Amino acid sequence: MASAAEQETVREPVQDPMMDHVRDPVEEVEPGVGTDVGREPGSGTRAVGEAASAAPPPEVWPGAPTPLGARYRVGPDGVAGTNFALWAGGAEAVELCLFDDAGAPEGGLADDAASVGGGVVGSGVVEGGVVETRLPLTELTHEIWHGFVPGIRPGQRYGFRVHGRWDPWTGARWNPAKLLLDPYARAVDGDFALPPEVYGHVRDWPQQQVADTVRDEHDSAPYVPKGVVVHDDAPDDTWADDRRPKTPWADTVIYELHVRGFTMRHPGIPDELRGTYAGLAHPAAIEHLVRLGVTAVELLPVHQFAHEDHLLRRGLRNYWGYNSIGYFAPHADYAAGGTRGQQVGEFKQMVRALHDAGIEVILDVVYNHTAEAGELGPTLSLRGIDNRGYYRLQADARRYSDYTGCGNTLHVVQPQVLRLITDSLRYWVTEMGVDGFRFDLAAALARSMHDVDMLSPFLAVIAQDPVLRRVKLIAEPWDVGDGGYQVGAFPPLWAEWNDRYRDAVRDFWRGATPDVRDLGYRLSGSSDLYAWGGRRPYASVNFVTAHDGFTLRDLVSYEHKHNEANGEGNRDGTDDNRAWNCGVEGESDDPEINALRRRQLRNLLTTLLLSTGVPMLVAGDEMGRTQGGSNNAYCQDNETSWLDWSLLDQPGSYGLYRLTRRLLALRQTHPVLRRRAFFSGRAQAPDGLRDLAWFRPDGKEMTERDWYAPASTLGLFLSGRDIPGRDARGRKITDDSFLAVLHSGAEPQDFALPGEPWARSYELVVDTSSEDQEEEPGTVLDGGTVTTVPARSVLLLRVQG
What keywords were assigned to this record (predicted)? Predict the structure, then answer.
């Protein structure tokens, strides 16, 4: 076989007439368009060290263009191997790169072992005894490069090198020196470091304003993870007998958690399993979820993600994971059993364990952008495969349209991008067993060319897909672009994070509401937002806190963010916290301040769990977890973010936990608290009572004028006598009726309990002014009498006759 040097005509470097540097004339680059740095003239892709021992390269058979990715199967004549298929629309050539660390000779990759423009096959050592074998994929079908390699089995590591023009001014950023992760890789092995070699351009070019136009020729293979061939039906998956809980939306209680943060400090989980999928599957972790009473966990991103350069330079890591790079691969760092495909089976076993406990698994997914950032970001996958085909570019195609605040936006209108996303979603449902998705910055996915469009290709495809339309779909209904705020606008099938609920409830309990109109809508299911197109109250995912922002405890302990540990001068994170610190900023040793804070925690949790809609709790809020005032702990992979389970040993925190359990059990028992239809507000036969009524402290129903006046006390009557809908056997649903009284004032408030026909008497079920929340108080109060509501508290009363 001829060496790379023998195949390539060596020419002297020439001066680029438009740029003050030397470029290699072998590369067909238009003058002034770009330049190559790090390549020796005539050497092909960079290679160092001694020549590797020659070995016959594997054969590449034509294979098939579908399915995309690497799929182990039986090929022609019963020969087992792996089919590789990559969409790379504008590419000129694609090389499959196989990596093997078994029996590799010492030394480095020799010139005659590298593949260069002509498609030479060879092997060589690239780092630490790792052998890279490059195989051209010569078959091209509908812009998909493909080939079947006999003998390649699960566990094989691989990547791609894609050849094409370097012309950043038109958005073309191909660079075969960069090893690229397969977008369809089902497992990823290795960590993403971000040295200069992983950038397609010269990262440290002196003139930063044009740095992204200067092509870097240093090989990135030693510094990037590789895809792993995965067996579709591994024997340790134990998947066949899984049973999905299929919890109805109206009965759902979501618990947002981080796989690592939830398990890292749990005393009942073995050390070697902490921070992993196996740790979350451990009986000690599942016991907490079951005892608490939640029905679904919403996992912060578990797609393979990368850490940003600015964090790595400061010795930090991306903790939350909203920086995806592999949409089919479980994040490898969360695997206890290995990263050569074992993470796939471990994830499936976690899902099965949660399903066995009756708990659904919802994934927080980030399809709006990738870890490759803007034009100055690294080249890890999609940018090097077909930059123009995957990303939204501006009229100046060097630049990216950024509707996400993260440097780039996936161009979901493009068929290949839409296919990538929907293939990924279906994979996680059908093969990984998940029950739904929460879409980060979903408005960015709903944009057609520029504007958010509820008839966009993405939403249309989801609506008709027989797999995806049947799972839980939750939108974060906004992005950072113009017109991106879309709360209440997503079509049927979709639930939404309702930030208007969050703001209204926070404002009421800190005494900052000009009137109670918005609060009334939020407590009763947000019919002003969702009562259209057949949508139901469970379209509203109600929350007071989420992963971003203050924890519940910090919401009553801090008014200002404290993000100094992020190293960004406390500039990051929102300033709109809508928080009240109860008079002292931060931790306090004042018993009265701490008692008031515990009461406010009980008020916020009780309000959330009594509201119509789907409640979402954040892991640790039920025990008073703090982040020390950080409202943007995205890079705090430490005890700032990890749950402190010792809080359950503290009486105040344990009392909050017991109240949360009691409220969730109450919600599960009483269908009036989890309605499937909106309240009508009209009289119901036969007694003429409305299904929902609002009362003032004097015991009279609120008038139109009352809704426009400031108020710190609000009573709402929930009638269980005629709940719309029928049970599974077609029977009418009836339930107890309840009166909830919310009082945010600093002084006690007399409240006249509505008498007949509303009720003859009431039994006190919840009183948040009490520290002891083990059992219901049980006090009976006559209708028509006046009771005193303690300062800053919630009373929940059950109607007796």
Answer: Glycosidase, Hydrolase
